Amino acid sequence: MMSFEKIVIQLKQLIPGHRILTDEDECRLYDCDGLTLHRGVTPGVLLLENEQEVIDAVKVFSAAGVPFVARGAGTGLSGGAVPLDQAWVIDVHRMREIIELNPLQRTAVIEPGVINLDLDRAAAVHGLRFAPDPSSQRACTVGGNIAENSGGPHCFLHGMTTRHILSVRTVLADGSVLELPRDGGGIDWRGAFIGSEGTFGITVQATVRLIPRPQCVRTFLVSYNSLEASCDAVTNIIARGLRPAALEILDRLTIKAVEASVFRAGYPRDAEAVLLIELEGLPQELEEATQKVREACLSAASIDFEEADDEASRERLWRGRKGAFGAMGRIDSDLYVLDAVVPRTRLAEAISGIQAIGRKYKLVLSNVFHAGDGNLHPNISFDAADPEQRKRVLSAGDEILRLCVSLGGTLSGEHGIGIEKRDHMSLIFSAEQLETQSLLRKAVDPQGLANPGKILPSGRGCVEAGFRGAGHQRRTQQVLGSDSKDKGVPPVGDTP
Fold first, then answer.
1. Upper half-sphere CA count for residue 467 (Cβ side, 13 Å)
2. Does residue 278 sit in the same domain as residue 145?
3. pTM of the model
């Protein structure tokens, strides 16, 4: 492998030196994404601004046999952007140009660092929208959305990110550039690339589909005296043939945190759960749908039924949901946001089991989730500085994932597999199926340089926050030189 010093020299010939970070403290800022339970170590970070710089950097790494990981806003929640195996970080968040927005074609050509909400706002000027809306919409990048095939509250009606990506331009692990169109016959490489979590290459440009903004939107908040009753209401809504744009549930602890935060939305504090419902369509069509929603939601367990009467009140109701994860900071210093899916008809059973797991491990556990498609987000609030508590958090997370799979569900609805769930992949895939996925990955990236250690089970080590052992220091010294031992390099161990 080429020495660290020679790699830096080559990179400086291609990229301005001030955008090549090798300082230990600066690089430490990139050791994790939104999932802080797992951390890695990178010898360097590149702040790139255009496609040619990405191509040049990847060619240097490919020739040297050095792994790399692409990073956008770092809002991912499965460890997908964590640098493993001494991988360099290729940060593309500065590539944020909307190259073209064509309202007649209803498309936009964008760079990967474009913020999701910025794209939606640019489309709104033309009466259009970019439908995928993760809760981190104000910060997350579309390139990251493509890598993880992200969802969001409105994906129940409009589908995941993949439905809205018409083509992707990617830099493969050898530095070559490939256009992946949506339609063209043969193998759907675009479909394989979306959701591959950066293991197939780096998005440098994408053409996205925009859709018309709805003529009419009606938003409701229904409160209940039990979480199970709110889940039953979701089943009742779907049973009546309705297809809301969004069906979101927040439990009592989440409501309490939201109402004590800057995201205060006026949710009833005495409710055990609230169900946020949004309908889209034509005015006359929604009149009939609203009556069906009332019939489906009102029961002995319902406390109140509120409808937003203008855009301001609609935004207020959504402010609480969109800010829920941020509000959890009022409960404890750290938050583990899980992501799993169960059949919609087994929501209540899953929630009951998840709550039991929280009690078993004596953890503060709350729930906020996309109820329409059974995409659960159990949230565990904890103190990462407490090793014993952290151990219980990881054990509870493992049991929750196993519970959801046992109920006929799967491991991820939108956050991806990353580091967090790679060793759970055998719960849903056979050894032969995993080997097939591995062969596809090797066909695209024979050296295994693009985001190593993600998705597929492997023996590669990652770092659980707070468990930084001598292994980190040895690996860092190999990359930075022996004098790094005197620079306060934090040690790293392997995730148990």
1. 16
2. no
3. 0.90
